[in-house]
């Protein structure tokens, strides 16, 4: 879980789509971690007669990728096919019944995975958080199990966000202690940093306790929010590798600013993960961006400001390099630190200078094509430049 590479793997998996009056883009990147343990789901138009419904989720695996991968392939079917969920759809969908059906799907897949692993070679020790949204014609159902997070931007501000399930949270800590465990260094029994997750069966074997009473619970919190077509802008689902370095308002402001310069949701998603990498995230990173018709639109004024900012940064990098004169070409660290000490107008809110790292790096490489390997910017990533 704690092993890191010498330099990050920045290759990305991307996807996008649209339908049911929403558009989405997603990006995932391994980053500094030795393995990629994230997974995701994006489905527009569900089975079982739910053509107008959509489902999106991010799974953040730990101690292996098996649970995350299984959930991305099978969780949705466990939700939509269980009797509790199906009964909720017989007539007008009942919000509470839909929520109960989602909860049942989580408990069912968790028990199913336990049975599968026990039939193989003992208990699979991997686990995964899950954060998702099920979007119906009338409601947005936010689903959270663990410390990944989802949020809704409405009317130009953060309208809702899920609550992280951390062992130190009072209700989570109470359940852990009632199951005979303890919370040390903010972790379950001093080991696991999340208090709810799918899998993690080593923490779900307390006799006499039900599945939702164990040290780690597979029970999601489900929140139903009525849709507001006039004001709903976008939803962000992301693993904690994103939230470790970006606050809710920062990420919303950043996404809003990016949507004003491009309508390419894959590009915006890529900018999110790159910016978080440059801000210092050391984890796998996955983000799904779902846009409603009320999302910010491309603005000619914003596009012009962005072009002027890029041009200004390119000129400043050239000036910084030339200023060194006979001392030789400064390394990229010096360039970034110099820019970070300056007041630069119109930097993207939330992303700040870190979100412009690629622009700065590109002009630096162009002006310094024969740089030595020890100053190769591909291996220079620093915190504190935002």
What can you see in these coordinates?
This protein has two domains: 4-291, PPM-type phosphatase domain (Phosphatase 2c, domain 1, 4-Layer Sandwich); 300-379, Arc Repressor Mutant, subunit A (Orthogonal Bundle). Helices cover 34% and strands 25% of the residues. The chain has ten helices and 14 strands. β7 (149-154) and β8 form a beta hairpin. α1 crosses α3 (95-119). The longest helix is centred in the N-terminal third of the chain and has 25 residues, at 95-119. Residues 372-384 have low confidence and may be disordered.
What's the total number of strands?
14
CATH superfamily of the largest domain, by name, is: PPM-type phosphatase domain
Q: Beta-sheet strand percentage?
A: 25-35%
Mean pLDDT: 93
Major β-sheet profile: 6 strands, antiparallel
N-to-C order of helices and strands: EEEEHHHEEEEHEEEEEHHHEHHH
Briefly note the CATH topology name of the largest domain. Answer: Phosphatase 2c, domain 1
CATH architecture tag of the largest domain: 4-Layer Sandwich
Radius of gyration: 23 Å
Topology:
Elements: E1 4-19, E2 22-33, E3 38-44, E4 54-62, H1 66-81, H2 83-88, H3 95-119, E5 127-135, E6 139-145, E7 149-154, E8 157-161, H4 170-178, E9 183-184, E10 187-188, E11 198-199, E12 221-226, E13 232-238, H5 240-243, H6 248-259, H7 265-278, E14 285-291, H8 300-324, H9 332-340, H10 357-367
Antiparallel strand pairs: 1-2, 2-14, 3-4, 4-5, 5-6, 5-11, 6-12, 7-8, 7-13, 9-10, 13-14
Helix pairs in contact: 1-3, 8-10
């Amino acid at each position: 879980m704690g092993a890191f590479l010498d330099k990050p793997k920045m290759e990305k998996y991307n996807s996008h789509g649209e339908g049911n009056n929403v558009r989405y883009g997603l990006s995932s990147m391994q980053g500094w971690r030795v393995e990629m343990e994230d997974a995701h789901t994006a489905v527009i138009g569900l089975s079982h007669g739910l053509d107008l419904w959509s489902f999106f989720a991010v799974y953040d695996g730990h101690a292996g990728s098996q649970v995350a991968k299984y959930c991305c392939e099978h969780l949705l079917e466990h939700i939509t096919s269980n009797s509790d969920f199906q009964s909720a759809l017989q007539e007008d969908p009942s919000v509470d019944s839909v929520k109960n059906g989602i909860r049942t799907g989580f408990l069912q897949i968790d028990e199913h995975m336990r049975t599968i692993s026990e039939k193989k070679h003992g208990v699979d020790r991997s686990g995964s958080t899950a954060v998702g949204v099920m979007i119906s014609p009338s409601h947005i159902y936010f689903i959270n199990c663990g410390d990944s997070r989802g949020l809704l931007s409405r009317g130009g501000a953060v309208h809702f966000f899920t609550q992280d399930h951390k062992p130190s949270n009072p209700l989570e800590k109470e359940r852990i202690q009632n199951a005979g465990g303890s919370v040390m260094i903010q972790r379950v029994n001093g080991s696991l940093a999340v208090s709810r997750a799918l899998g993690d069966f080593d923490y779900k074997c307390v006799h006499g306790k039900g599945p939702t009473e164990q040290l780690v619970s597979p029970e999601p919190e489900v929140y139903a929010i009525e849709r507001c077509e006039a004001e709903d802008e976008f939803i962000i689902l992301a693993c904690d590798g994103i939230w470790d370095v970006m606050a809710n308002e920062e990420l919303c402001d950043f996404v809003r600013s990016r949507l004003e310069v491009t309508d390419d949701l894959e590009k915006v998603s890529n900018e999110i993960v790159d910016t978080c990498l440059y801000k210092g995230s050391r984890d796998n990173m996955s983000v799904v961006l779902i846009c409603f018709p009320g999302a910010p639109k491309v603005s000619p004024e914003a596009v012009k400001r962005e072009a002027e900012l890029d041009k200004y940064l390119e000129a400043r990098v050239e000036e910084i390099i030339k200023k060194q004169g006979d001392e030789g070409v400064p390394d990229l660290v010096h360039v970034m630190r110099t820019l970070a000490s300056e007041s630069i107008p119109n930097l993207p809110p939330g992303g700040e200078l870190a979100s412009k790292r690629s622009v700065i790096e590109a002009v630096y490489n162009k002006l310094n094509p024969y740089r030595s390997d020890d100053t190769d910017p591909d291996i220079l990533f620093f915190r504190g430049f935002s």
